[in-house]
Automatic annotation (TrEMBL):
The keyword Membrane does not apply. One of its GO terms (molecular function) is sequence-specific DNA binding. Keywords: DNA-binding, Transcription, Transcription regulation. PROSITE patterns: HTH_ARAC_FAMILY_2. The lineage of its organism: Bacteria, Pseudomonadati, Bacteroidota, Chitinophagia, Chitinophagales. Residues 156-258 form the HTH araC/xylS-type domain. SMART domains: HTH_ARAC. This is Helix-turn-helix transcriptional regulator. The keyword Transcription regulation applies.
Amino acid sequence: MQFRQIPPPAYLKDYIRYFWVMESHDTNVSAATFRTIADGSPGLIFQHPGQGVLFQNNKQLPGTILYGQATRHAELRISGSFNTIGIFFYPHALKTIFGLNANELTDSCLDLDLLSGAKDYHLSAQLTDLTSCGDRIDTICSFLLAQLTRHDQYADKAMYHALERIREANGNISVKILREELQLSERSFERKFKQHVGVTPKLFARIAQFQASMQLLRQRDYNKLSDIAFENDYADQSHFIRAFKEFAGTSPFQFRKQSEELIDNLSIITK
């Protein structure tokens, strides 16, 4: 099983965190289960037909999947050989690239080939016909650039500012402060944020706080869990563990014991 992380081209670096590639040519591989967690990022997945099929809750997922914000963990299953390309977008990508109200895809996904504006592009068929990973990524980038050009009117500097402030503060910032900086009412701010990001500002800040704690857990840069809790402004260790279970589906201890993280926020369950 091979995993690679590939940076986006410069013209998409404000919209894409990175591409990831997952490949296995072992047809004898039994079903593998992968865990995703709430990470503040929507994404896209292409799975080559005939080379592994992704299932969630025993339901086969479409060939090219566009998915929204996750507010909880999920488990995906795949078996046999597979050849899969994914994208981790930045939080605002569903609105700015595809013109979608991001809250319509929260904890959900759609077949990208059925999306208005993408139907005539036949992206899945194009990607299936290509044999090189590099050519597939180039084709995806061309498609995304065309979508971005079509929907450039949805760019919103106020939402970019709010997202950057939350990121800089690792989620530990008052929503009231953000509203005052942007001179928006509570209702207007929440409505616009949900359209661009998919969740409320408060929930997104909590996910950002959880992700900051995950980073310390990955680096093993702590002596005990309470160190992570206090470093990230949780009230106490119990508060941190409750938040971790909410977004990762398991306790920090169980996560480290039962999962092998392949790339950030995607791990194979080893239990």
